[in-house]
Every structure is written in structure tokens, then in C-alpha cells.
Amino acid sequence: MTNDQPATHGDAPLFCDRCLKGLTPGNGEFYLIQIEAVADPTPPSLIEHARSADITSELNELVSQMGDLSPQEAMDQVHRKLTIQLCLSCYRDWIENPTGS
Ligand SMILES: [Zn+2]
User: Fold this and answer.
1) C-alpha 79 – ligand 1 centre gap (Å)
2) What residues does each domain of the chain span?
3) Which single residue of 57, 61, 80, 86 could bond 91 by disulfide (Cβ 3.0 to 4.6 Å)?
4) How close is the Cα of 31 to the center of ligand 1, in Å?
5) Cα end-to-end distance, the chain, whole Å
6) pLDDT in tens, 23-81
7) What is the three-class DSSP state of 40?
């Protein structure tokens, strides 16, 4: 496993991840937001491939494409978990428009 845990251990100072305002734990003045991103979990559509030989060669191609990545990098491509803190005003802005569009 890796050590990229959020730095929220002990008495470490907390800051809003957006405006960098200092946050005091226990005062209810910030939101902890956990983001979990998963790549399209739908199984690839193989129905159009009539012969299993085609599928096997496609899978081999996929595996060889992934071969350049470390296991962690390959995992990051399909699953990321982030934890961020936002002060109340940043949270109110963000939750109304989380995709920033
Ligand atoms: Zn803020």
C-alpha cells in the first residue's frame, strides 16, 4: 500500500483545500468531502465480437498496453479516492456546482 493518506492526523493544522483558510476541528466550520472515482464499471461490450479468438487477442492487447504501468499506476487509472476539506463558504459554492461547469 502507499502512504498518500490525507494529512489529517493528530493536531496537524487544517486548511481549506480551496481558499487555504485555517480550520479548527470541532467547531463545525468545515466539511470533509470524500471523493471516490471509479472508471466506467460497465463490462466491455463483447457481443459484437463473434469469435472468441478476437476477444483473446484484444485482451492480450489491453494487457500489453497496461504493461508499461506499475500496479499502482494501473490502479489509479480505474480507482481514485480523495479526501478534501472545505470551509463553509467554499463548500456552499462547491456543492452547488461540483463539476465546475
Ligand atoms: Zn475555503
Assistant:
1) 26
2) 14-39+52-96
3) 86
4) 10
5) 34
6) 999 999 999 999 999 988 887 776 665 556 677 787 777 777 777 788 888 888 889 99
7) coil
